[in-house]
Amino acid sequence: MKQKTHSARAMGALSATALLALTACGNGDGGDGDGGDGEELTIALFGEEPYSWIDEETGEPTGATIAVAEEIFENRLGYDITIEEEPDWDNLIPGLAAGHWDVVSAGMSITEDRCAEAAFGEPELVYTTAFLVEEGNPTDIETFEDLQDAGLDVVALSGAVESGWMEEEGIDHETVGSADDGIDFVEGGRADVFALTAISLETMAGDMEGLEVTDSFAHELSVGAHAFLPDDEDLIEEFNAELDELMESGEYLGLVEEFGFTEDEMPPSGLTAQELCEEDPQELTEEYLED
Question: Tell me: the pLDDT tens digits for 142-193?
């Protein structure tokens, strides 16, 4: 096992255009299919608990997806990994395409649109949605349908699945660049509702005075995974082989349960990244969520 050489450094928010124009800092070609053997690998995280973030006390990367990335890329495959924070969700995939990092470890949901720009490892964590609202939930909102014509100021993370779903449902909303910003909007009275992954809201704002996280709900099957450059087929194959072993042995759950994930968040048996990229989301929802 290699000695850890993690370095976490905050990167300023950059536009997608700016990211594409900058010189790459990832190794740009991923793995060669023969294991890391000390090869450098740069991984991007996004500051959203409990998936991946920088611990304020230690300054080290942490979170469920980081634990999985360290176990597979570093401990099992022998890569020399560097983990960097990208504070703007919208920059994660452009930064991958620009070669700033080789892998995104942020629990990113696999969607058709994202699959046009990145490749995904096999499914890892199933998500549900919730709302951050004023304590007592005075407008009694529980689902996206409740937001339609409600006249509320709603925010969602830019580029997140919740924003896309609300666009499909015709729900007016603004977007923010980070989960912290969304929480600040509701806490400061600039928004009535912040829509985000339920486990993130519970972890980041569940005990905040004057605020409340509504009960979680599944609008559509949403499953997160690690994201890669499409050309890094060997690296993806290496990763998926180790991921499969972790899932089959139950070690995967052991890695992520420290961060609040349970058997309920494990992906349905047989579900693949290819299905999530190519098939109708509603049909997948009916097939797997009602299974």
Answer: 999 999 989 999 999 999 999 999 999 999 999 999 999 999 999 999 999 9
Over range 96-118, report the average pLDDT: 96
State the SS3 of the chain: CCCCCCCCCECCCCCHHHHHHCCCCCCCCCCCCCCCCCCEEEEEECCECCCEEECCCCCCEECHHHHHHHHHHHHHCCCEEEEEECCCHHHHHHHHHCCCCCEEEEEEECCHHHHCCCEECCCCEEEEEEEEEECCCCCCCCCHHHHCCCCCCEEEECCCHHHHHHHHCCCCCEEECCHHHHHHHHHCCCCCEEEEEHHHHHHHHCCCCCEEECCCEEEEEEEEEEEECCCCHHHHHHHHHHHHHHHHHCHHHHHHHHHCCCHHHCCCCCCCHHHHHHCCHHHHHHHHHCC
pTM of the full predicted structure? 0.83
Burial (0-12, 13-18, 19+ Cβ within 10 Å), 181? middle
pLDDT at 18: 38
* Residue 227: closest CA among 92, 88, 28: 92
Two tokens, residue 27: 């190794």
pLDDT 10s digits, 37-79: 789 999 999 999 999 999 999 999 999 999 999 999 999 999 9
**40-45 and 103-109 strand pairing:** parallel
Q: Are strands 217-228 and 103-109 parallel, antiparallel or unpaired?
A: antiparallel
Judge contact between 213 and 132, C-beta under 8 A.
Answer: yes
